[in-house]
Amino acid sequence: MTSVGPEAGFAADARPACGSCGTVYDPAAGDPGRDVPPGTPFGGLPDYWRCPGCGGPQHGFTVVAPPGADPMDLRVAALTASYRLIAERDMAGVPICNAALSVEALGFRPHGPGWIGCVIAPWFLNAVLIPRDPALWEDRRDGDKLEVGLPSGAYRFTAARVGVLGTLAVIPLASAMNVFADQQDARGGAVLALDHLMRNPQPAPQPEPPPASDADAAKPALSRRSLFGGGRR
């Protein structure tokens, strides 16, 4: 069995332990002393919550993953669960949400310091870069800009802290979600946008040489003797 970091977010009954001091968070008990009621899953902890034992950050907690578990799949599952919780807890009925859409992650693949893909939610469509090391951008605040190089060029992503995952880099791909008729429509937009971001730029087409004029066609071709003999005859 392997200990992994912020993957606890996708299991409501997960009891992760702090990697620094060993303190275990029990969702059944919560943490009433820090305004966390019993029954709160680790993925539902407020951003301000830190380890009661040593003050360590949420991303320092670990759970046990099955042997051979793919870290990318675990992180993406945690990300999806975190946004689903936000959708249910904070965004239900908010006017900017498209009720025809649900939280879904797609297209994630390794890139640079982590994994990049798209996340669809009723209120956004973002490209998201999840760092392998949750502490990579620990010193960045929400809204800070992060320069990220992609195959298609360099982009300014925005830092966004998501509880158990630490700080992610995100870039919006749609200005309003009501442009999508349904989930399938949003998936199509996400795939097109991600394909654009991750595609190497094509070289500019070379201009066609001008057609030879009649005068050029009448000129004799250079012989080897004239070429290497300085054109002397």
Automatic annotation (TrEMBL):
Keyword Transport recorded: yes
Pfam families per UniProt: NiFe-hyd_HybE, Rubredoxin
Gene Ontology MF, one: iron ion binding
Composition skew (Pro residues), residue ranges: 202-212
Location of the Rubredoxin-like domain: 13-64
Keywords: Electron transport, Iron, Metal-binding, Plasmid, Transport
UniProt feature, compositional bias: Low complexity: 213-227
Region (Disordered): 199-233
Keyword Nucleotide-binding carried by entry: no
Cofactor(s) listed in the protein's UniProt record: Fe(3+)
Biological process according to GO: alkane catabolic process
InterPro entries: NiFe-hyd_HybE (IPR023994), NiFe-hyd_HybE_sf (IPR038530), Rubredoxin-like_dom (IPR024934), Rubredoxin_dom (IPR024935), Rubredoxin_ET (IPR050526), Rubredoxin_Fe_BS (IPR018527)
Protein name per its UniProtKB record: [NiFe]-hydrogenase assembly, chaperone, HybE
Organism: Azospirillum brasilense
